[in-house]
Amino acid sequence: VKVAAPQAGEVRIKTVAVALCHTDAYTLEGSDPEGLFPCILGHEAAGIVESVGPGVTEFKVGDHVIPCYQAYCGKCQFCLRPGINLCTSVRAFTGKGVMKADGKPRYTYEGKPIYHFMGTSSFSEYSVLHAESLAKIRQDAPLDKVCLLGCGISTGWGAVWNNAKVERGARAVVFGMGAVGLSVVEGLVKAGASQIIAVDLLPKKLELAKKWGATHTIDPRELPEGTNVTQRIVEMTEFGADYTFECTGNTVVMRSALEASARGWGKSVVLGVAAAGQEIATRPFQLVTGRTWMGTAFGGWKSKPQVPMLVDQYMAGNLKIDEYVTHNLKFTEINKAFELLHEGECLRAVLTF
């Protein structure tokens, strides 16, 4: 694969470390709603600036950066609104797998174009990104750890702190104990939640949830006949949870999460990415009676200004990252990493070049 030089407003980086996320797997199997083929996948990475295109003054060669699929220009309505991170500056182009400068990708193979993915395409030793899609970070942060801040665990923390705004003493339920779900648990612990119920089908994942701070666990398969997850949660919380978080991407679970939240004030947050064409449904009465159903993209973080803050918090020992990395592999072992992900044998596998 040939990687062209950056054009106006673009930066070429050398990827040092990249982690696998389920969204990469979704796209690989054709389930992701935005996947264009052929493309270079990958979006949880960290690297070093190799060159910059004309007009780029924010970055210089040697800067350490984290690619961000949620861009930030600081000028559009979505960037200017507090708590909103759906920047429009390059969105129309990243969704098509091309660059804004000329509407073409920067990757080719045997003379044929290869599309970008999520504006990042981090499964490549070199990648070209819009300057809006990079966050500059401190030089002493380990790139094979902070690469995880490009997506999953940042999303979990932000869902709790930025989107749901969980208060001390709250009762919460988390569906799905992968890296995202565990980061939600971590966020809930730091927010002071009094009851944290973890739901998963794998006993080993529920054990991890306890280590992360969950106070209760539920394996739906072990419930008494005639009792479903929603009923069990209502029993445990009296009226339903104050907050529920869906981290599986399963639309049936999304409905269960909503209906397990308390009528009158319950809030349910969707973090999981569903396959293309999937729809969610519930009885309108669930919303009429005061529940709030919402989603989050990248946990509401404004990438360019706030990702460096998360790096600082990690470096200060206030946030976990190392514990989420269960496998360290060479990039040439990427197929093994996907197998581990599919088998549920890892939280995050980090690949280095």
Automatic annotation (TrEMBL):
Query: A single Gene Ontology molecular function, please?
Result: S-(hydroxymethyl)glutathione dehydrogenase [NAD(P)+] activity
Which InterPro entries does the record match to this protein?
ADH-like_C, ADH-like_N, ADH_Zn_CS, GroES-like_sf, NAD(P)-bd_dom_sf
Q: Name one Pfam family in it.
A: ADH_N
Organism of this sequence: Polarella glacialis
Q: Write down the required cofactor(s).
A: Zn(2+)
Q: What is the protein's given name?
A: S-(hydroxymethyl)glutathione dehydrogenase
- GO CC list: cytosol
Keywords carried by this UniProt record: Metal-binding, NAD, Oxidoreductase, Zinc
Limits of the Alcohol dehydrogenase-like N-terminal domain: 8-137
